[in-house]
Design goal:
single chain, 6-stranded parallel beta sheet
Length: 358
């Protein structure tokens, strides 16, 4: 049986637009090739060019279909303009806020970046820095990742606490952070406090807990073993804080305040407390840590120790680029300390009068 002929007209493909050269783009704009190149390649030197001119250049580049040859630029300058970023995972909270600062600064400076998440698997923590270097990254940023040995490119560790050759550690003043939280609770006359420690794999867990114990001793706060719980599991879900708080409640040891390892676990803790009939903050005050974006929108708003996470990301990106562009043998900073702040919201209040006498 003969096939029926199609009556549909064949589709015509639009011809690809030809890309203009950098020289043609500059001539079209009446600007120098150097100025146009600075803007197109997001060079730091572009900051000297008025914003209105930069917008004009980018608009013309889109209209004329100009496509910069980044490979040729890299080969010519023998540079990749690429940074590797290693994180545990990408989810709401700590890593996401740090990443926002890293991304903004690298984009502003015209750098590309690779992001890899290791999910706390030791083999990936060891392997990823090597793989990124094989892909010609010029520097590395490790976020909440404990690297055991140095690498061949400049490396900046956010929440890094190990003295490793070639590494700049950006760390929070944890002693100050613990003091801010516990002073706040003692001023509200809380003496019976419960605590949630971080997971064993978190790079901040040990130093933060040591700081909490030191601050408690200074303020005369007795930390009871039965009122100390530890997060378990690799997820960043509030469920981890929920589970720990249920165990703290089951211990039967009374407490009027709870200081959680981070905001995510504090949110889970509040849910467990409410299910047990405890009001926040009338029965139990809760303090978190980090000041993630959703902390202010809890009900009540979460009192928390604020880490300047986005600023730490910007600082990490600034530092790694400074080290990349510094002359050889120029000393690099081994440690950069950032300061916390206490953000007081509705999840903390005075201890109940009857419990003050217990």
């Amino acid at each position: 049986m003969p096939r029926a002929k199609s009556t549909l007209a064949p589709k015509t493909r639009k011809p690809a637009r030809e890309s203009v050269s950098l020289k043609s783009l500059a001539e079209h704009l009446g600007l120098s090739k150097t100025a146009v190149s600075f803007v197109i390649n997001r060079s730091p030197s572009a900051k000297s060019i008025p914003q209105s001119t930069q917008e004009l250049i980018r608009r013309a580049a889109r209209e004329l279909n100009y496509r910069p040859n980044h490979l040729a630029r890299s080969l010519r300058q023998q540079r990749s303009y690429t940074i590797g970023v290693v994180v545990p995972e990408i989810s709401e909270g700590y890593a996401a806020l740090v990443m926002s600062g890293i991304e903004d600064h690298l984009l502003e400076e015209g750098y590309f970046y690779f992001v890899v998440s290791h999910r706390h698997r030791n083999e990936l923590i060891e392997e990823y820095p090597l793989l990124l270097q094989q892909r010609a990254v010029e520097g590395l940023i490790a976020v909440d990742t404990a690297l055991s040995e140095g690498v061949q490119v400049p490396l900046v560790a956010v929440s890094g606490h190990r003295d490793v050759p070639g590494v700049t550690n950006i760390v929070l003043n944890h002693a100050r952070a613990a003091t801010l939280a516990l002073e706040h609770l003692t001023k509200l006359e809380h003496r019976q406090m419960a605590f949630i420690k971080g997971q064993e794999f978190s790079s901040d867990t040990a130093v933060r807990w040591d700081s909490v114990r030191a601050a408690a001793a200074e303020l005369g706060i007795d930390i009871k073993d039965r009122l100390v719980g530890q997060l378990e599991g690799e997820s960043s879900s509030p469920e981890l804080g929920y589970v720990v708080t249920r165990k703290l409640l089951a211990s039967g040891e009374p407490f009027t305040a709870l200081f959680a390892f981070n905001d995510i676990s504090a949110i889970g803790a509040i849910q467990a407390l409410r299910e047990a009939g405890r009001r926040i903050p009338e029965d139990v005050s809760v303090v978190g840590f980090d000041d993630i974006q959703s902390a202010a929108f809890q009900n009540p708003g979460l009192t928390t120790v604020k880490q300047p996470l986005r600023q730490m990301g910007v600082l990490a990106a600034e530092t790694v680029l400074q080290r990349i562009n510094a002359p050889l043998k120029v000393p690099y900073p081994k440690e950069i300390i950032v300061e916390p702040d206490l953000i007081v919201r509705g999840s903390t209040g005075p201890a109940r009068r009857g419990e003050l006498e217990m």
